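Reopening this ticket.

The earlier resolution said the output was attached, but the attachment link was broken on my side. Pasting everything inline this time so it's all in one place.
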Amino acid sequence: MRARIVRIGNSRGLRIPKALLEEAGLQDEVEITIRGDALVVRSARSARLGWDDAFREMASHGDDRLLDADLIAGGTAGVDESAGEEWEWK
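Inline output:
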């Protein structure tokens, strides 16, 4: 299929037929990259895509625990026990 590149202000645009958009699964936002002499248009990925799987894997390995949980559970958050006094952010 051929298409004409049209002027849109200082940029150029390309009209993509609805059937092609649906077949490719493209919606409102896309990523455009260059591969050789071709433009590649893909659906924009979610910034958090894959996080659910990563969190499940972390939990299965026990890597999802809080590193300072003992401080929070013991009620000593914000206290330097070695000095016996509260500390301040500077």
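Reporter confirms the inline version is readable. The mean pLDDT is 83. The CA atoms of residues 55 and 61 lie 10 Å apart.
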